[in-house]
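Q: What would this chain look like folded?
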Amino acid sequence: MSLIDLSAAELVAQLRRGDVSSVDVTQAFLNRIAAVDKTINAFLRVDADRALAAATKIDERRARGDSLGLLAGLPVAVKDVLCIVDEPTTCASRMLERFAPPYDATVVAKLRSADAVFIGRTNMDEFAMGSSGENSAFGPTRNPWDTERITGGSSSGSAAAVAARMAPAAIGSDTGGSIRQPAGLCGITGLKPTYGRVSRYGLVAFASSLDQVGPMARSAEDAALLLEAIAGHDPLDSTSLDRPAEKYSETVSRPLEKLRLGVAKEHFGEGLDGEVAAAVREAIRVYESLGATVEEISLPHSRYAVATYYIIAPCEASSNLARYDGAHYGHRTDEKAMLAELDTERKALVAVGKKEAADDLDSPLVRMYRQSRSEAFGSEVKRRIMLGTYALSAGYYDAYYLKALKVRRLIRQDYDEAFAKVDLIIGPVTATPAYKIGEKADDPLAMYLDDVYTVSANLAGCCGIAFPCGQSTGNLPIGIQLQGSPLDEDKLLRAANMYQQTTKLHSSTPPV
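A: My prediction, written as structure tokens:
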């Protein structure tokens, strides 16, 4: 079996035993990237020399008998939304095309401590705003199962890299489903931790009360290994929970006894594809065969979740992205050309007797701000900034943002009541398998509705995991989602592993 076909857990075990070297493993994945990523576009940057140098140092330390970290020698891809010192961190945006952070994100620092090898920075929807992987300033990521179809977003590159065997594991971020949706659509495993379980320090913010960093890998076993490396309290993040990282890799293989699964009736209504519904129902039967009990539950306020999310998230985005003004950092327009254009406009107005209109033109500073942002932000980012700015404006704050916060609390209350009855909630990740690239490009509302099964967990601060449970007649992955109460990642991983040890669907390989 080729090295790229081994799981992260298998590779780590072989590296520890000395059966393979980190250089050999890293080179195998670099070769795979060179062979297929021109088709997939999962990576924005790959620094082969730096990766091989890091792998060489780990091999040398292992040969000396030095103490090594949990992931020692394992290549890991990192979504381009996490800061890495002195390396470009673009968020797939022209705005940050030349931005190189002066520090590491805490998750990156933890991966360094675990002796992981950074193999590359992955593509994404610009500033993590999107559910399809099409909104990158550097081109869409393509699904390894059908390159004419979307990967899901916003952690599109991380999902595609793992699915196409270009990386054994990757880091993503999830604001409204951005780990779970691409995991489900690409046939891999992706976990959104509880809000505060993993540090957000050094994560470029989209919506600060919703963003969370998490692992993307082939299996629950692999995800457990990665989560163990990145979880834990961080004093640099004021929202970080003061709880140590658990030994997820040691407990993931223990089956759960008397597992109680809840099926939300709201998740099987209008709009759910028949093949997806059938695959999820079959997965529920598998759990029943493993001894789980299943109970119908209700999440009555889930019908408001998408509307609530698309008020709160754009409001926070409007605030967070206000810093990108072309003055402090980020893209800055060509000032010489801008000033010449402004002078031409002013002279033209004066020439036709419109001096007052000329006086009302932007000042050079305002024009610089406006033009810099207009040039550097993509259409979806602009759309969300405008939505958020409107909802926060005078006269609308109470009607939209404040009301959305109240509904958010009701959504959390629904989850609290559900978890008093069941251990985990089981249901679909997306309503359909992956659709064609460009299919929903002119209908943003239809794309926002793709988030219907995932945004609630972010609004409630819960944890969730997605993994494959079947394939469509078009040979596309169908994903299933488990959601757990806060800090129940161990239970999620063990439940997912139970299923994966029974079905082996997560081992399917895409045709690319």
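The CA atoms of residues 221 and 376 lie 40 Å apart.
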